[in-house]
């Protein structure tokens, strides 16, 4: 029988923690971690480091790190406005006559920065005012080289396409997100158990991976910062932005749905032999997910089988060959801050780096743990140091974690989609927790007084029986 994980088991801060830089009174604290990027600096200095010049362009790692973290201190629209203003001021783009030779050195660098920004953080450009700043600054350099205007048109076209694609988010895919009660259990003629749709564990693992990668593509890197934002005490009284974490939240809902779907499929059959068959099937699916590198589906399946309504089915589990399940549980054991899982994840990440095919590049992390790691990183280090400087060293660590995730989510799924299977996974009815308990008690009678009382209460409330 599986052991039931408690909430406190799921994650602990453990040894996770970025370095804590010592504040100084100078503009820089410690050694620069990137060329021109101090471990701490004022916000104004960091913004200046972002602005390209004729003979200077910020490192790619700095651009990603600062654009990711800057939204904790300044709205993206305001940041772009300040960057454009500095460009105009430094390159004297407001003069009637421009230094064409100078602009031709500066122009490509400005367009490169705007291309990187719009590509990585397209949602920063959803406001028309932001697009206006972008058009204005490029319009000032366009007279020096007609290619700049053409490049600007291509950039905006790509941006609009990306925003349109992101607008078609995954929320609509969850047609049956709300759990149903036991009373609304669909008749056998309507509800088709998963095994009748897909009986091959490897195929189901592939389809789960297809769904995972599709959903991951919609999550922007900025959502990881925005999920844990606190109003900057040195900023204005208004928060930096409103709630912009819909895709991240939708992905967490998908994980929860998969947990409940697994539990529902196990509790649904009336005969213990069939229930045991479903459990063994999901064990094989979980193993294939592990082999693929799909740790999120793997953990959802294990969590579903560890839910109390499933784990209490002793007669059913007695018929299950549990050796493979215990191996998987060991891999995802929360002990030591998920030490075994983290080792497996590093192995998958290394395989991905040296891969020659999309199949070997797949790394889908256990998402809830990734979010909690970022949460503890955020909580463990201040955004600003006592001297008011931005703690840039913290944000380098944050960018490292988020950047790795961005690399993983961009892998193209090598498996062909089976619409009938993915549709079932998205829309099949799932029981609520009470519905699962009642189905479990109907399958295997309550064993103690606590279970008997709960069964009686559930039958009364859900089925309307006395």
Give the helix proportion (percent range).
55-70%
Count the E strands.
0
Given helix and strand content, the structural type is mainly alpha
Listing every helix as H and every strand as E from the N terminus to the C terminus, the arrangement reads HHHHHHHHHHHHHHHHHHHHHH
Q: Write down the Rg.
A: 26 Å
Measure the end-to-end span. Answer: 33 Å
Strand content: under 5%
Shape: elongated
Mean pLDDT over all positions: 85
pLDDT below 50 for ≥5 consecutive residues: which ranges?
A: 4-33, 172-176, 231-242
By DSSP (H or I, 4+ residues per run), the number of helices equals: 22
Features:
elongated; 22 helices; mainly alpha; Ras_GEF_dom_sf; 466 residues; Ras-like_Gua-exchang_fac_N; 0% strand; guanyl-nucleotide exchange factor activity
Compact summary:
By secondary structure, this protein is mainly alpha-helical. It has helices spanning 43-50, 60-69, 76-90, 100-120, 128-141, 146-167, 194-197, 201-216, 222-226, 246-267, 272-292, 295-306, 308-311, 314-317, 323-331, 335-353, 358-361, 367-380, 392-409, 419-427, 433-443, 449-462.
């Amino acid at each position: 029988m599986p052991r039931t994980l408690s909430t406190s088991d799921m994650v602990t801060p453990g040894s996770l923690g970025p370095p804590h830089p010592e504040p100084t009174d100078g503009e820089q604290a410690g050694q620069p971690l990137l060329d021109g990027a101090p471990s701490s600096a004022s916000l104004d200095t960091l913004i200046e480091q972002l602005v390209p010049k004729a003979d200077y362009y910020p490192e790619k790692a700095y651009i990603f790190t600062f654009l990711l973290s800057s939204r904790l201190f300044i709205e993206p629209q305001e940041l772009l406005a300040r960057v454009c203003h500095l460009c105009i001021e430094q390159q004297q783009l407001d003069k009637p006559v421009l230094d064409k030779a100078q602009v031709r050195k500066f122009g490509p660098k400005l367009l490169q920065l705007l291309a990187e920004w719009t590509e990585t953080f397209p949602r920063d450009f959803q406001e028309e005012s932001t697009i206006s700043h972008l058009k204005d600054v490029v319009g000032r350099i366009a007279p020096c080289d007609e290619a700049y205007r053409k490049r600007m048109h291509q950039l905006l076209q790509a941006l609009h396409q990306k925003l349109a694609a992101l607008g078609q988010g995954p929320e609509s895919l969850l047609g049956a997100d709300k759990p149903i009660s036991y009373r609304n259990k669909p008749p056998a003629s309507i509800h088709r158990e998963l095994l009748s749709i897909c009986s091959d564990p490897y195929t189901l693992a592939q389809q789960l991976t297809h769904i995972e990668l599709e959903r991951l593509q919609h999550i922007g890197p900025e959502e990881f910062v925005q999920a844990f934002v606190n109003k900057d005490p040195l900023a204005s009284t208004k928060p930096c932005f409103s709630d912009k974490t819909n895709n991240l939240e939708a992905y967490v809902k998908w994980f929860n749905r998969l947990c409940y779907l697994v539990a529902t499929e196990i509790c649904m059959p009336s005969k213990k032999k069939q229930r045991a068959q479903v459990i063994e099937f999901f064990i094989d699916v979980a193993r294939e997910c592990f082999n693929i590198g799909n740790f999120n589906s793997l953990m959802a399946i294990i969590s579903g089988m560890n839910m109390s309504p499933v784990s209490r089915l002793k007669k059913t589990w007695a018929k299950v060959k549990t050796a493979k399940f215990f191996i998987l549980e060991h891999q995802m054991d929360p002990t030591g801050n998920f030490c075994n899982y983290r080792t497996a994840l590093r192995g998958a990440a290394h395989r991905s780096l040296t891969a020659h095919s999309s199949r070997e590049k797949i790394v889908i992390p256990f998402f809830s743990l990734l979010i909690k790691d970022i949460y503890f990183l955020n909580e463990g280090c201040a955004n600003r140091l006592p001297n008011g400087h931005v703690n840039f060293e913290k944000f380098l660590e944050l960018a490292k974690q988020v950047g790795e995730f961005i690399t993983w989510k961009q892998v193209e799924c090598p498996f062909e989609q089976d619409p009938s299977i993915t549709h079932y996974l998205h829309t099949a009815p799932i029981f609520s927790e009470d519905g699962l308990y009642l189905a479990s008690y109907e399958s295997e009678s309550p064993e103690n007084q606590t279970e008997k009382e709960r069964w009686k209460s559930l039958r009364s409330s859900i089925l309307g029986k006395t």
